[in-house]
Amino acid sequence: MKMTKIEIITRASKLEELKEALNSIGVLGMTVSQVFGCGLQKGHKEIYRGREYDVNLVPGIKVETVVCEIPVETVIETAQKVLRTGKFGDGKIFIYELSDAVRIRTGHRGVEAIMDIPGEKPAR
Q: Which residue has better confidence, 107 or 56?
């Protein structure tokens, strides 16, 4: 079975809505990072102590997930529906094919490494 990593970079204000939408299609595991970047908007100018500065890096979030059973197109369409405003800064989606994954705790590889183990509960 093919594994695909999907990275979604977008506005931080959309995180909760995106998480809920991804959960609703069965995407439960994800990693979220705060990121800074620039694209077509090229940042903006700010004034600090009377001097103007170029701020080239705009804050955002990166949501990463790996799917194998959920169709990649479903994830992309769901994310676009939630994130598209038509304005600069809506973000980007990157798709990578994965050759392997390893669950460190058990040594499971491939699809087994990213799937839930039935009946197993995480320690709290």
A: 107
